[in-house]
Design goal:
The complex is a heterodimer of chains A (222) and B (250). By secondary structure, chain A is mainly α. Chain A is built from nine helices and no strands. In chain A, α2 (20-41) packs antiparallel against α3 (45-66) and α7 packs antiparallel against α8. Chain A is globular and about 55 Å long. The two termini of chain A are 25 Å apart. Chain B is mainly alpha-helical and 250 residues long. The longest helix of chain B has 33 residues, at 14-46. Classes of the chains: A mainly alpha (222), B mainly alpha (250). The A-B interface holds A 148, 152-153, 156-159, 162, 165-166, 168-170, 172-173, 176-177, 180, 183-184, 197, 201, 208, 212, 215-216, 219-220, 222 and B 137, 140-141, 143-144, 147-148, 151-152, 156-157, 160-161, 164-165, 167-169, 171-172, 175-176, 179-180, 182-183, 186.
Chain lengths: 222, 250
């Protein structure tokens, strides 16, 4: 079973490495969206520092949502997904492996890039670290919840727009605790409670989202 | 199955439920009309003006039932969706999709009347209060459900996919509610607090309960009427629908 999980992750990573442009698109989308905010709001560092966590988090959510179409899309169009459904291993495990690979190529780059963007918004020291930790804990949950939406909208007309309607409301708790942690850190309350809740959401999503996404895949490929 | 002589599943078939729903609709619609008139009379003429809010509070008699219904219908909808997914009963899935527009309507009503109430009371149409925000998110959930169902052409796949989404949503509703509530208390001090349960005059409470009953009856009547349309649409190739249509044409 672990062999299946590992080979699924390695396969998806290999495919992603062969198409680096896709990975970079998501990353640059993230950077561009974040860079638009100072242009829209104005360059005052005080304002920017206040909105920084929210801006980075919303941009990260939008960027990873943009990448959701690729989670199952390519495998669906070339028929691989049907073979995966027939595999003897539990489908939810294989889905979890796919989500892990997807997070490594779309979520992790955002996490690594975020401190740099935080610096541009005048975040420093502890606040910057907190932002980094919230993204590290939160983006896996985002990918996992998104997988359910991606599986439900597989092969539909306008699926990429539809998926945003489905998953964005479900992302709200992650956004609240993610951006709230940085704010709590800055205001001196400490971010531990927020980070714990974010971790709890990630663990819950890890337990249930693969099951729901597997059920959704079976419905979509019925 | 029929050892007791009662067939519990008789009305889980669209063919038998369709005429039953048709017979039930006038009753529920009639009750809804009577209760609305009675509730509005109680609310506007019997209930005393509030000592703080004057007459403006009277929008509560629409606002509060609508807010209750909006949340309750989502849970009922998810329940029907779960039944449909587990037992593969067609009628449950049809009921779930018939409930969604009514639930969305009540959510919208609750938001709209809330804004109308907020303007004279708080001096603003909208505050990012925990309840308002979660009601808004509930509206988004309804819209997501309905648009997923509308996007899929195959009705079987549509009802199964949207059913799964409803279940995922109902699991998330408490998480969203508490996160929004906590977010709100962190951000702004309780400038407006609903938590101090106001003591209500008995006639106000009576009007509120009668209006809630009216909303219930309205919701049931409308959902039954809508599910009849959905039944006809989805079963249009079956024998009994043709017979029903034949009969109604005559």
């Amino acid at each position: 079973m672990w062999a299946a999980l590992r080979s699924m992750v390695m396969r998806d990573l290999t495919l992603a490495v062969r198409r680096v442009a896709d990975v970079l698109t998501t990353l640059f989308f993230f950077v561009i969206v974040v860079s638009l905010f100072p242009l829209g709001v104005g360059p005052e560092m005080e304002t920017l520092r206040v909105i920084a966590p929210g801006v980075v988090w919303v941009a990260a959510i939008l960027a990873s949502m943009l990448a959701l179409g690729r989670l199952f899309g390519n495998d669906y169009s070339d028929g691989t997904l049907e073979q995966i459904l027939l595999a003897p291993q539990p489908l939810s495990l294989l889905v979890a492996a796919k989500v892990l690979a997807h997070w490594l190529v779309t979520g992790l780059p955002l996490v690594l890039m975020a401190p740099l963007l935080g610096l541009q918004f005048g975040l420093e020291g502890e606040a910057l670290w907190t932002l980094w930790w919230t993204l590290l804990l939160g983006t896996p949950a985002i990918s996992l919840i998104g997988a359910v939406g991606a599986a439900l909208t597989l092969g539909l007309r306008g699926g990429s727009v539809l998926v945003s309607l489905l998953v964005l409301p479900l992302y709200i708790p992650v956004l609240i605790f993610g951006a709230g942690a940085v704010e709590a850190q800055v205001s001196g309350l400490g971010a531990t409670a927020h980070l714990s809740l974010l971790g709890a959401i990630a663990v819950l999503a890890l337990c249930f989202a693969p099951l729901a996404a597997a059920a959704a895949l079976r419905i979509s490929l019925d | 199955m029929s050892t007791t002589g009662i067939n519990w599943f008789k009305y889980s078939s669209p063919a038998t439920f369709y005429p039953l729903a048709g017979r039930m609709i006038p009753w529920f619609a009639g009750l809804a009309a009577v209760a609305t008139v009675a509730g509005l009379y109680l609310g506007f003429f019997v209930a005393p003006p509030d000592y703080q809010q004057g007459d403006a509070y009277r929008i509560m008699f629409i606002h509060v039932p609508a807010a209750w219904m909006s949340m309750f219908i989502y849970v009922v909808m998810a329940g029907y969706a779960a039944l449909g997914l587990i037992f593969n009963t067609r009628l449950s899935a049809m009921m779930a999709s018939a409930l969604a527009p009514t639930g969305a309507l009540f959510t919208f009503l609750a938001l709209w009347t809330g804004a109308l109430w907020g303007k004279p009371m708080w001096g603003t149409w909208w505050v990012w209060d925990a309840r308002l925000t979660s009601e808004l998110i509930l509206l988004f959930l309804y819209i997501g459900y309905m648009s997923l169902e509308a996007a899929i052409d195959d009705p079987r796949r549509a009802s199964r996919a949207s059913g799964l989404l409803a279940i995922v949503g109902v699991v998330n509703v408490p998480i969203i509610y508490y996160s929004v509530e906590w977010w709100n208390t962190l951000h702004q001090g309780a400038s407006i607090s609903f938590d101090k349960a106001p003591t209500m005059a008995d006639s106000m409470l009576a009007a509120l309960l009668v209006m809630t009953f009216a909303c219930w009856m309205y919701a049931i009547a409308v959902v039954l009427a809508r599910v009849r349309c959905i039944i006809l649409e989805r079963e249009r190739h079956s024998e009994w629908v043709l017979e029903v249509l034949e009969e109604e044409r005559r």
